[in-house]
Amino acid sequence: MQQDSFYREYGAILRKTERPARYIGGEFGSCNKDFDSCKKRFLLVFPDKYEIGISNFGHKIIYDLINKRDDLLCDRLYAPDKDFIDLLKENNKTLYALETKRCPKEFDVVGFGLQYEMCYTTVLKLLEMSDIPICSSQRDLSHPLIIAGGPCTSNPAPMASFIDAFTIGDGEDISIEILEKFVQLKKENKLSRNEILLELSKIQGVYVPLIENNTTKRIADLTYENHPTMSPIPHFASIQDRATIELRRGCGRLCRFCQASHINLPIRERKKDDIVNLTKEYIKNTGYDEYSLLSLSSNDHGKIEEILKDLNCHFKNTGISVSLPSQRADKFSSGLANLAQGERRATVTIAPEAGTQIMRDRINKNLSEEQIINATISCIKNGWNKIKYYFVIGLPFETYEDLDGIVELIKKVNENCRFEGLKYPQITCSISVFVPKPHTPFQWARQNTIEEINKKIEYLKQLKSSVKNVKFNFHNPVMSQLESFMTRGGKDIQEFIFELYKNGSYLDSWDENLDVDMYYKTANKLGLDIEKLATKEFKSDEILPWDKINYGVDKSWLLNEYEKSKQVISTIPCEVKCNNCGVCANLKTHKVLDK
Ligand code: SF4
User: Fold this and answer.
1) CA pair distance 326, 313, nearest whole angstrom
2) What's residue 345's pLDDT?
3) How many C-beta atoms lie closer than 10 Å to residue 440's C-beta?
4) C-alpha 437 – ligand 1 centre gap (Å)
5) What is the 3 state secondary structure string of 287-344?
6) N or C: the chain end with fewer CB closer than 10 Å?
7) Whose CA is nearest to atom 6 of ligand 1?
């Protein structure tokens, strides 16, 4: 649709909606290809609001790689807010993709990014608004292929009825391969839809629920060419308003609760020169005045100091600054922090995760109390007065002494400040609730009940009253229980997701939308006990709903890590020494360190 006819048709409702800029497209850096002249069309869908989705790095990569090809088209869709949905409905208008203004059902492949479980019902609503049957079994060859990627595909079972094919592992080249194969097979006109799905299931990294095939994750090469140097610049502030350059993928620290660490192995570091050149190019193309060096643990990159020195030198006196989103306390140095923060002294974030050494060893954090305190004091001495700590409560084998340890740690930081003559910092503790995640050593573990967590929260609040310079922010335990229920759920919760969608559940990761009662009532109606399933301890020989998905890590290795957690034995990081987790042998790959 031409821009002028689009505004004629949708102008009136855009003027009435709360944030029209979410729905107009045409951002600087967007591709805006001609729909009719490209015969292979992919629609990338982020089932959350524009300002969240447009910052997603995975989506930026796929959008860039598909659109780099002249014969392919990639458009975008973000979940409209409820006011815009009502306006579309009242005015009998259809949902449209951002750039081509075409209905999603006109594309060949529609790919959802599943980042968190609370977006599942949003996916169903977006299918409904696109006039695409919700269930895969009701679709035919007149409909697009519905695929899904992202971390939630580590357990496809809860969404298996609604998605035709899941992509497992790195998404760089698999989206293009699926798009090309699907269009080609459809064009040949020889196969039924189910036969085409069977063909797609033969691609490495594709799981087709209809076939229930075993599949092994895809690993992409992290080349210069595979990284975007341009991406659509949002019309208004998004959650990450900066250029993002990926330093490394995977993390060899192997914290036992961390899914991202285990499903992204082996570690692959980008080369220093590539990172420096990508950053310069990205900043030049976009005009951003800030860039972020993305990684699960930024200061683990072998050449991080050299990278920061080169970039600081290049951007000197330009006002362009850098942020390192995640830093390890044991590798923290004030020199590095100064290089990263320049003259800005925003909040420094440190993630001890647990308050006592025994618990940090159980979760394999490989971090001592001394390292945490030293990193904190070093920050304070260098001008940071706001410290943010991340903790997790409800971890396997946790005792109340571990909770005491959180407050004791803060008291020791204060004691050290007093000893050094430093002003006490403002400390904010962000405290989340443990959620057992598939493909981690803690995938078998039970989650605490809400009653247990609430008791622990009350206990911590009482302890906190003895320390003045600290604020506790607790993650909602109910949300964590729902997350645990859905992340380890089997096929039996597909109906639950469908019922929630029918009852109006949409954009539920937003507190104002989440109707907790509806979740529990719907589960009750279907005979499902959310708390029982969320807090279940799986047996070690039990078949798990995600067993068909192979990320390369041996199940026996994960189980052994769980056992080591019980016995308080930690594991050396993969960067230092290979632990034979299985990934490199099973996937015929190896770690890549830029040393
Ligand atoms: S097999 Fe060894 S080197 Fe490879 S990811 Fe596992 S621990 Fe790291």
Assistant:
1) 22
2) 58
3) 24
4) 20
5) CCCEEEEECCCHHHCCCHHHHHHHHHHHCCCCCCEEECCCCCHHHCCHHHHHHHHCCC
6) C
7) 581
Determine contact, residues 344/324, Cβ cutoff 8 Å: no
Cα 11 to ligand 1 centroid, rounded to whole Å: 55
Q: What percent of the chain has pLDDT over 90?
A: 84
Asked if residues 166 and 145 have their Cβ atoms less than 8 Å apart, the reply is no
Q: What are the Cα distances from residue 569, in Å, to 112, 526, 566?
A: 39, 42, 8
Residues 6+ apart with CB under 8 A from 377: 413, 416, 417, 420, 422
C-beta of 405 in contact with ligand 1 (< 6 A): no
Distance (angstroms) between ligand 1 centre and the Cα of 172 equals: 22
For the chain, the domains span 3-216
Which CATH fold would you assign to the domain 3-216? Rossmann fold (3.40.50)
Better-predicted residue by pLDDT, 329 or 177: 177
Atom of ligand 1 nearest to the CA of 581: 6
* Nearest alpha carbon to residue 428 among 463, 392, 389: 389
- pLDDT of 568 > 80? The answer is yes
Q: State the DSSP code for 81.
A: P
Closest protein CA for atom 2 of ligand 1: 578
What's the pLDDT at 245? Answer: 95
User: What band does 344 get if pLDDT is binned at 50, 70 and 90?
Assistant: low
Does ligand 1 lie within 6 Å of residue 553's CB atom?
Answer: no
Check residue 167 and give left, alpha or beta (phi > 0: left; psi -120 to 50: alpha). Answer: beta
| Model confidence pLDDT, tens digit, residues 538-548 | 999 999 999 99
Encode pLDDT of 350-381 as tens digits: 899 999 999 999 999 989 999 999 989 988 88
**What pLDDT does 21 receive?**
95
Q: What is the pTM of this model?
A: 0.95
